[in-house]
Amino acid sequence: MALSGVEIFKLLPKTNCKKCGFPTCLAFAMKLAQRQASLDACPDVSEEAKKILGEASAPPIRPITFGTGDKAVKMGEETVLFRHEKKFVNPNAFVLEIKDTEDDATVEAKLNDVLTSEINRVGQLLRIDGICITNESGDAGKFQVLVEKVASKAPEVPVIVATDNPEAAEAAIKPFSGKNAILYGVTDTNAEKMVEIAKANKAIVGVRAEGLEALSSLTEKVKGLGVEDMVIDPGARTASEMLEYNTYIRRAAIKKNFKPLGYPVINFAQRDDSMYEALVAGLGVCKYASIVVLSSAQKWKNLALFTLRQNIYTDPQVPMQVEQKIYKIGEPTPDSPLLITTNFSLTYFIVSGEVENAKVPAYLAVMDCEGLSVLTAWAAGKFTGSKIANFIKESGIENEIKHRELIIPGYVAILSGAIEEKLEGWKVTVGPREANALPAFLRQKVA
Amino acid sequence: MAFVEPKEILSGRVIPVTIGTEIQQTFGGENTLPFHKFEGEIPNRPLIALEIQDVTPEEWPETVKKVFEGVSDDPVKWAKYCEDELKAKAIAIRLVGTHPDNKDLSADDAVKVVKGVLDAVKVPLIILGSNHIEKDAEVLPRVAEVAKGRNCIIGKAQEKNYKTIAAAAMANDHKLIAMSELDINLSKQLNILLTQMGFSKEKIVTDPMCSALGYGLEYTYSVMERIRLAALAQNDEVMQPPLLGDVGMYVWKIKETQASEETLPEWGSLEERGILWEAMTASSLMLAGAELLIMRHPRAVEMVERFVDELM
Ligand code: B12
Ligand code: SF4
């Protein structure tokens, strides 16, 4: 639990010397409590106070980076249980499992699925984030063959090496040494050996126990062995266990500041039916998993899962928005059509996508409406005739185009009169209601 | 440090609502957050109703249209098909044909359709208007009357037309869907207005307005979570009616359920994409608190039912 300003104040020197840049120690303490200042700013704070404050200010769920380079995934650092309270911080990773019992063709296909999984949705690049290489056979030799294959074909993808056999683990983790891989399969019985191997290769430790009591003592044990970067598997196998364990872990960490469970959670969602598996994986997305392991990664399934993750992890206070400006689509000329919409990301990406589909070069004027959709912005009085007129005038577009015609969204046809009144010399044309009718509309317009 | 289960026993309870006569279904009734059976009681599963319409749904995408080929031209056949072949637990008939921009069918037409369906099936019926404020106020009281004695759900009552619709539901002993637009305060306000006119809160189903995955799902999701927390943690009685997720109509109009794999190869199979889109919108909203869902594709329903099995 975070300390209050007054509790922090008690630990400060109380000399009010102002060296921290604040008039009093109390003012500084208040800022610390709000996490708007750093303890380093006070040169005179005692070592003991540093230790206490350091522990108290550590995030309740440990931040961990899985993988390295461009494809690294940040996990942990969550601070709430419900997304309306505050933004969920680090979106979960989706990891595809490849087993050493699967035939070559399957392995190739799965590697390909991971490597080609990237899609762009509402301006974000989304992909299957990692691969879980599982020693299903129990045979260290077979495992190593698969490990080498993944390491050579997908060298940049973060991996989980999953085995509970230290001998197999020792060789298997080598190719990923220093790459923030996860060595998963650390249990109460093998912890000493496995932790040594993880340490030697700078791997994150993936611990597994049956139930939360056993899990708590296991993380304490691993911490005692000198490793703090862990992901935890409470052994949930049914959806019902997943919900229970994940909820208790998140609550214990955030509400009780219970450190032994303050780590990112890994869930295994594999099911025989791929579509059904997506629903179980979706439970992980909604309910507190940091890593969700899948058995297959079809494109249709990825799209749904990526979209759900994007929805759950958007900021509840600030809708996703794009910059206000006149966007050029294709290479517009002074005769190209000019369309207007709002700066809600979803709206912008749908509309610009359809204008692209039309293959008609155009100007898309995107007006700042605090990230609201067209109708919402209109209903909220942010997308009005006079505001649109002002925006068009100030945008400078009049110097770039020869014509004076503005195409507005069909849903706000009602605005056309008001805009024409405020925007002298302009003609307003009402476009289609749905953006998917834009290609036909634009093509006909320039025909 | 020893682990202690951080159980949270909440003081409120969602109102259980029973619909139907010959065959009855009950949803709601839990005193804990969705599927949190580890710290509370969940006496009933969420209920999923299959949607049918009074007119043939031309604009539904192929994926879902073809399932009902041969029956969707006749609401009575369609309803029987849902009950007999698809084993629907409940049926929701949406009178879209009455909308002035659709076929502008009259209240008399709607009465005929609803009567036919009621005579044909035994499972509980949810009767929905076309979401046109004035027309619904005209049509719904008439169909409520013809359905008297069948313990249906009538909807949707909104701020601008709730009086007439609620009065009809009350006079004919039906439950009522109260819909507001993605705002917990508006939702609460409408429930208060309803109770002030003497409508029992035990008979309300709250529709905080649905939205599809990728198209505002997060708003519905969070409004539902907030309503559930108000009902259970703060024991706010006005917020205790069960929640509706009217999923199908929002899902089957968006691009992800329509665009072919040829035009968007990076989106994969259209068939599976569409069905999963509906199932995942529904399953996520159930996790946020929806106890009643209206859906269109039987395979999506099957997926969600299996998910509930694993969670209960
Ligand atoms: C999510 C949502 C919200 C969210 C905000 C989301 C956001 N970032 O905008 C929240 C909950 C905050 C909200 C609030 C309100 N909302 Co609201 N909201 C919605 C909802 C469900 C979806 C909106 C959405 O995201 N649409 C998707 C985007 C992509 O659509 P779009 O921007 O319109 O773009 C489409 C078209 O317009 C077209 N298009 C866009 N640009 C262009 C440009 C050209 C040139 C062309 C040709 C076409 C085109 O293409 C797009 C796709 O086809 C709609 C209902 C619905 N299902 O549509 C109601 C809706 C828009 N809201 C409504 C209302 C009334 C409100 C509130 C005033 C009431 C309230 N609940 O408090 C407030 C106002 C907000 C404020 N700050 O005061 C009404 C508007 C009524 C009306 N007909 O004017 C709607 C329609 C609900 C309803 N009555 O059914 N809302
Ligand atoms: S620098 Fe330290 S001692 Fe000086 S006022 Fe700031 S908090 Fe107090």
Regions of chain B with pLDDT < 50 over 5+ consecutive residues?
none
- How far from one another are the termini of chain B? 31 Å
Average pLDDT value of chain B?
Answer: 97
Question: How many strands, which pairing sense, and closed or not: the largest β-sheet of chain B?
Answer: 8 strands, parallel
Secondary structure class of chain B reads alpha/beta
Individual helix count of chain B: 10
Distance between the termini of chain A: 66 Å
What's the helix count of chain A? 16
SSE topology string of chain B: EEEHHEHEHEHEHEHEHHEH
Task: Write structural notes for this entry.
Chain A is 39% helix and 16% strand. Chain A is built from 16 helices and 17 strands. Chain A has helices at residues 5-11, 25-33, 47-57, 104-115, 140-153, 166-173, 191-200, 212-224, 239-255, 274-286, 299-312, 345-358, 374-379, 385-395, 416-422, 438-446; strands at 64-66, 73-75, 93-99, 119-121, 124-126, 130-134, 159-162, 182-186, 204-208, 230-233, 266-268, 291-294, 325-329, 338-342, 362-367, 405-408, 427-430. In chain A, helix 6 runs parallel beside helix 7 (191-200) and helix 14 (385-395) crosses helix 15. The longest helix of chain A is centred in the middle third of the chain and has 17 residues, at 239-255. The model of chain A has no long low-confidence stretch (mean pLDDT 94). Chain B has 312 residues and is of the alpha/beta class. Chain B is 38% helix and 14% strand. Chain B has ten helices and ten strands. In chain B, the strands form two sheets. Chain B has an eight-stranded parallel sheet with strand order 8-7-6-5-4-3-10-9. Chain B has a two-stranded antiparallel sheet with strand order 1-2. The two termini of chain B are 31 Å apart. The interface between A and B is large, with 51 and 47 residues. Bound molecules: cobalamin and iron/sulfur cluster (SF4). Iron/sulfur cluster binds next to helix 2 of chain A.
